[in-house]
């Protein structure tokens, strides 16, 4: 069997906003502006397939990195001639996903098409009913997808595989509320998840070694992304991480994977965990292992302020930690409490001061358009705090309301959004879909103006520009910063 794992084109990703007066203007920053990152989920599944079913031929096509659009897609797929195609997805990209699936179905009508990724987790029943697919996987596919391959090869019934569903087999679960406390409570069928992450084969990066992956805040053009844990036990009101049980890999397994990356020529590792630093002790244990092995590389992670200690930062810096991205979100204690961030502004100030003193770069992620921001002045006070903590980089997003979050439910209850829009889109994806925002007090046009203003207030400060230039250590850093500056001025 010839198996293709596909990361489809991204030409019709749902927009943040469509201005009737200027349809081409949908915000300040595009996804591409933040960089291109490997499809780790597909790489894990590819490794699992090669381990469990080595008799099959496997292929991976990352249309994003290879800049393959819908016009060129079928030429690439035809060169492979797949019998089975696994397509990853996000809900916001489902129109692209369906376009790709239809084209493959037309050319290879006998091929089995399986939909995975985040979308079947968020909308399992709607996903299973899509006519473009023969099956879906709800959850993680490293165990479920190889089992599906084995069943298809032998002609056996695959509907008994946990997490694998068809339009017919999933109907028996409709209306049932998932009562497993490891998951967000929602109406979904039993998902497939991997408990022992150390048992998984590491991502097979051999198939992407020729591709250009990069981060706008990276220090190198040889960047590897890595997952050291899965799940997030936190309960932020704007976030939907479905698996609440935190599962982590051993420090030995992580360090071994880093060794393999270094041997392939990678110089930088970006940890893509939802929450890397669940405890300071975890960061210390990892840093001690890297130091003990004498590895020389730079790394960064996404983390929370309330699980940082000065000692953990000292250890991380000594082990090569270059940068930490913190989800600060807002600049008031009341706002942090409402978002359920479990930290205070004083903690935020302290951690950013520690990082500055130790030479660890910081990214501060902020949101505007929050329910408690009633005026432009409220938004500007939020940004005042961002300027006050003075991170090395800042990202200012406009709050998007996603299904299965508390803020989405509250907005629907107040009549600010029509919650059915997402389910309708999931049943019939279309190109003109746009995201919902909290526009009770400020319109999306107002928020876009404030977003642009916020970026310019932060990045165009003379002191910041001078400090940023002095801190630039590579041609990669210089070019990415130059691209960002051009975007700001435009």
UniProtKB/TrEMBL annotation:
Cofactor(s) the protein needs: [4Fe-4S] cluster
Domain of life per record: Bacteria
GO function terms (MF aspect): 4 iron, 4 sulfur cluster binding; catalytic activity; cobalamin binding; metal ion binding
B12-binding domain segment(s): 25-159
Keyword DNA-binding in annotation: no
One GO term describing the cellular component: cytosol
Any Pfam family: B12-binding
Keyword line: Iron, Iron-sulfur, Metal-binding, Methyltransferase, S-adenosyl-L-methionine, Transferase
Database matches in SUPFAM superfamilies: Radical SAM enzymes (SSF102114)
Occurrences of domain Radical SAM core (ranges): 218-430
InterPro entries (UniProt xref): BchE-like, Cobalamin-bd, Elp3/MiaA/NifB-like_rSAM, Methyltransferase_Class_B, rSAM, rSAM_horseshoe, rSAM_sf
CDD domains for this protein: Radical_SAM (cd01335), radical_SAM_B12_BD (cd02068)
Name under which the protein is recorded: Cobalamin-dependent protein
Phylogenetic lineage: Bacteria, Pseudomonadati, Thermodesulfobacteriota, Desulfuromonadia, Geobacterales
């Amino acid at each position: 069997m010839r198996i293709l794992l596909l990361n489809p084109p991204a030409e019709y990703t749902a927009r943040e906003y469509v201005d009737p007066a200027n349809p081409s203007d949908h915000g300040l920053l595009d996804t591409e502006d933040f960089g291109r990152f490997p499809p780790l989920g597909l790489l894990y599944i590819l490794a699992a397939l090669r381990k469990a079913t080595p008799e099959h031929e496997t292929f991976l096509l990352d249309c994003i990195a290879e800049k393959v659009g819908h016009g060129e897609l079928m030429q690439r797929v035809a060169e492979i001639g797949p019998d089975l195609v696994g397509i990853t997805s996000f809900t916001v990209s489902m129109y692209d996903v369906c376009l790709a699936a239809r084209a493959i179905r037309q050319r290879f009508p006998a091929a089995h098409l399986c939909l995975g990724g985040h979308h079947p987790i968020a909308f399992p029943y709607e996903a299973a009913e899509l006519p473009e697919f023969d099956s879906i996987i709800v959850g993680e596919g490293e165990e479920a997808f190889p089992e599906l391959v084995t069943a298809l090869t032998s002609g056996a019934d695959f509907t008994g595989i946990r997490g694998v569903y068809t339009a017919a087999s999933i109907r028996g679960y409709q209306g049932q509320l998932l009562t497993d406390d490891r998951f967000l409570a929602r109406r979904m069928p039993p998902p497939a998840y991997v408990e022992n992450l150390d048992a998984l084969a590491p991502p097979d990066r051999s198939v992407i070694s020729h591709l250009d992956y990069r981060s706008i805040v990276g220090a190198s053009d040889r960047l590897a992304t890595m997952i050291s844990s899965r799940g997030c036990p936190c309960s932020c009101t704007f976030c939907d991480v479905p698996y609440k049980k935190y599962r982590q890999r051993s420090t030995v397994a992580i360090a071994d994977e880093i060794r393999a990356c270094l041997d392939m020529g990678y110089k930088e590792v970006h940890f893509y965990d939802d929450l890397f630093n669940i405890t300071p002790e975890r960061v210390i244990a990892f840093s001690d292992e890297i130091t003990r092995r004498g590895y020389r590389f730079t790394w960064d992670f996404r983390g929370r302020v309330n699980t940082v200690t000065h000692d953990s930062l000292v250890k991380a810096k000594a082990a090569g930690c270059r940068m930490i991205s913190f989800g600060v979100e807002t600049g008031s204690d009341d706002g942090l409490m409402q978002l359920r961030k479990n930290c205070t502004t004083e903690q935020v100030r302290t951690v950013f001061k520690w990082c500055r003193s130790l030479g660890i770069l910081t990214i501060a992620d902020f949101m505007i358009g929050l329910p408690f921001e009633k005026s432009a002045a409220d938004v500007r006070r939020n940004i005042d705090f961002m300027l006050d903590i003075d991170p090395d980089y800042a990202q200012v997003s406009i709050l998007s309301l996603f299904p299965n979050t508390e803020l989405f439910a509250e907005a629907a209850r107040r009549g600010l959004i029509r919650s059915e829009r997402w389910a309708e889109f999931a049943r019939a994806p279309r190109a003109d879909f746009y995201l919902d925002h909290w526009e009770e007090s400020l319109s999306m046009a107002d928020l876009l103006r404030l977003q642009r203003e916020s970026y310019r207030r932060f990045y165009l400060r003379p002191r910041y520009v001078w400090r940023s230039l002095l801190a630039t250590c590579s041609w990669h850093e210089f070019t990415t910063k130059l691209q960002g500056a051009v975007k700001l001025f435009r």
